[in-house]
Write a structure and sequence with these properties.
Mean pLDDT: 88
Radius of gyration: 15 Å
Helix content: 10-25%
Structural class: alpha/beta
Number of strands: 7
Oligomer: single chain
Low-confidence stretches: none
Number of helices: 2
Strand order of the largest sheet: 1-2-3-4-5-6-7
Strand content: 15-25%
Distance between the termini: 42 Å
């Protein structure tokens, strides 16, 4: 399933694509059907069609990692090479993502949803959204989770 969203990546008009075969098992998951192997295979050709069909998006978001990291990274590379002005994001429900992820994406969300801590828009959340310098690896990661909180004030700034 795909949708164009304004709320997943700050200041971006994002084409969000659900990825099945989710490896997580979050209590209270809003999309438990994604644990199954369902839907159409996401290929470079399908991505090209989706982008052509959704004029104006400036970010492509994978909602999940699936179970084939090499395939996911190849799709991210396709996006990076063919659409250099399009930002690429990954929402992972895992606490620790494959270290290769940090070199292929502009945004990475980590952490399983935990009801007791709340979603990204709660200051108590255990989840984090990182803005990356593409190709800069984990060392370029800036935690921008605060952008989801009321007024988006960086709690680290005085």
């Amino acid at each position: 399933m795909t949708s164009v969203v304004l709320e997943e990546i700050p200041d971006r008009l994002t084409l969000a694509v659900d990825i099945s075969n989710c490896q997580g098992n979050c209590e209270g998951c809003h999309s438990p059907f994604l644990r199954a192997d369902i839907g159409e295979e996401l290929t470079p050709e399908v991505i090209d069609f989706l982008i052509d069909d959704n004029f104006g998006v400036n970010c492509f978001l994978f909602l999940g990692e699936g179970n084939d990291m090499d395939a996911l990274l190849a799709l991210a590379d396709h996006l990076n090479e063919k659409y250099p002005s399009l930002e690429v994001a990954l929402y992972s429900g895992l606490k620790h993502v494959d270290e290769r992820v940090w070199d292929h994406f502009d945004y990475v969300k980590t952490g399983p949803y935990k009801r007791a801590y709340g979603p990204l828009n709660e200051r108590t959340t255990n989840q984090r959204l990182f803005r990356l310098k593409r190709g800069g690896g984990i060392d370029s990661a800036e935690d921008i989770t605060y952008r989801f909180w009321h007024k988006g004030i960086d709690p680290n700034r005085q």
